[in-house]
Amino acid sequence: MTPTTSSLTSPGQSPAAPPDTDAGTSREASSAAPPSRTRIIGLDVARALALLGMMVNHLMEPDGWTAEIFRGFPSALFAVMAGFSLSIMGARGVREGGGALAGSRHGLIVRGAVLIALGALIEPFAGTIQVVLSAFGICYVALACAPRWRTSTLAVVAGVLVAACALSHVLNMTVGEPASLVPVMSGPYPAVVWAAYMVIGLIAHRLLTRSTRAQLLTVLIGTPLAVVGTMLRGYVDLDALFESGDLGALALTSIIDPTAHSGGLIDMVASISGALAVIALCLLVFKGGWWSFPLQAMGSMSLTVYVAHVLSAGPFLLEDAPERLPVLGTATVLLGLALATLIRLRFAHGPLEWTMRRLIRLATDRSRPGISRNQA
Fold first, then answer.
1. Residue 364: what are its φ and ψ, rounded to 5°?
2. Does the pLDDT at position 174 exceed 70?
3. Per-residue pLDDT reduced to its tens digit, 56-72
4. Mean pLDDT, to the nearest integer, of 114-138?
5. Which residues pair with 26 in a beta bridge?
6. Reported pTM
7. Cα separation, 44 vs 297, whole angstroms
8. Which of 54, 38, 81 lies closest to 288 in space, CA to CA?
9. Whole-angstrom Cα distance, residue 130 to residue 125?
10. 301 DSSP 8-state letter
């Protein structure tokens, strides 16, 4: 890992980062391949909130309305933020074209392949946690060309993917086992759902990042949509419809199902609205300062923190384990924030982020000499 060259300065400036180059930003290398980019503090904080939400949901199992906040929304926020990352990593290639465009696409494909492999490696140690990395990796590979698409094209793709999510849920509820033969449309984390979230994140990065007006509107519109969608969860009982044998009613209800992680239209709209509202609020509120640095640090190394959480919590989350592990949950949250802060005070990247950068740099290096036929 590359050490940082700066230390604590003024109260309004993020620790371990040079002076802000723009409001709400600090200068450092990103988690993708070079060159260095300006990190947006609000986006790092949003990633951290997604990670903290998943930790609480996995280990503390809150009750009542608190449970609804942590059910579905953190993982949706994490996926939408992956779309932001996809857009940021592809920005230079889109701007310059040519070899830079090819290099950014290759880098995204390599990143996806590494995530698929990493997801497969940690899955056996995850306990009851459903690991999302492999699904994310598939989406990075499939959407490597997406940063160059027009916003209108991305909007159409997002609409098609959201409709495919609802269709996937209908098939899984009515057809069952045959639908599970299509990996991207089955399981607790079907890739088509995460692809929809990531494309929404791509669009949101273009529209939200630099517009305070768009951020305010997103908070004002997205928050009530998320609340209403969450309230509707208690009015749908698909199990009762399934037992009744009325496939028509089951199919129609499945299309709009508000249940968290279902992929129904109401669930998708509520989850997307909630994720965008949180991101917009973070962009509005978090402009820098020492008080936000632990969250910024955690969000800047989200892959490292996520994998560490899965590997540390997985052995305790077995089928017969207690639903609530509050001591472990509290320790995970506090240690995650503390260790991320300590790492960022010394290094520019988390361990897995640094490794990912190195792998992408090696795989996309265009300066390597060719091999002649005699040498081959």
1. -115, 15
2. yes
3. 999 987 777 778 888 88
4. 94
5. 39
6. 0.86
7. 7
8. 38
9. 11
10. T
Which band of pLDDT confidence, cut at 50, 70 and 90, is reported for residue 78? very high
**Tens digit of pLDDT for each residue in 283-334?**
999 987 788 999 999 999 999 999 999 999 999 988 777 778 889 999 999 9
d(CA 359, CA 236): 46
CB atoms within 10 A of CB 145: 12
> What whole-number distance in Å separates Cα of residue 31 and Cα of residue 81?
13
> Tokens 């997801």 label which residue?
119
Q: And the tokens for 27? A: 């200068």
Confidence of residue 369 (pLDDT cuts 50, 70, 90): confident
Query: Which residues have a Cβ under 8 Å from the Cβ of 88 and sit 6 or more positions away?
Result: 30, 32, 37, 205
Residue type, 148: R
Asked if 188 and 261 touch (Cβ cutoff 8 Å), the reply is yes
- pLDDT at residue 185 in the model: 60
Q: Report yes or no: 193 and 165 within 8 Å, Cβ to Cβ.
A: yes
Burial grade of 242 (CB within 10 A; 0-12, 13-18, 19 or more): middle
Reduced to 3 states (helix: H, G, I; strand: E, B; else coil), residue 39 is strand
Cα gap 241→336, rounded to integer Å:
42
Instruction: Find the helix or strand (DSSP H, E) in which 27 lies.
Output: strand 25-28
* CA 216 – CA 346 distance, rounded (Å): 35
Could you read off the pLDDT of 21-55 as tens digits, one per residue? 333 444 443 333 444 567 899 999 999 999 999 99
End-to-end CA distance of the chain: 34
Amino acid letter, residue 318: L
Alpha-carbon distance of 277 to 221, in angstroms, equals 8
The backbone torsions φ and ψ at residue 347, rounded to the nearest 5 degrees and listed phi first, read: -125, 155
Q: From CA 86, how far away is CA 43, in angstroms rounded?
A: 13
Q: Which of 354, 308, 316 is nearest to 51 (CA)?
A: 308
Confidence of residue 5 (pLDDT cuts 50, 70, 90): very low
User: 292 and 46 in contact (C-beta within 8 Å)?
Assistant: no
CB 271 within 8 A of CB 230: no
Q: Are 337 and 309 spatial neighbours (Cβ–Cβ below 8 Å)? A: no
What b/e string do you get for 261-278 counting C-beta neighbours within 10 Å, with b at 16 or more? bbbbbbbbbbbbbbbbbb
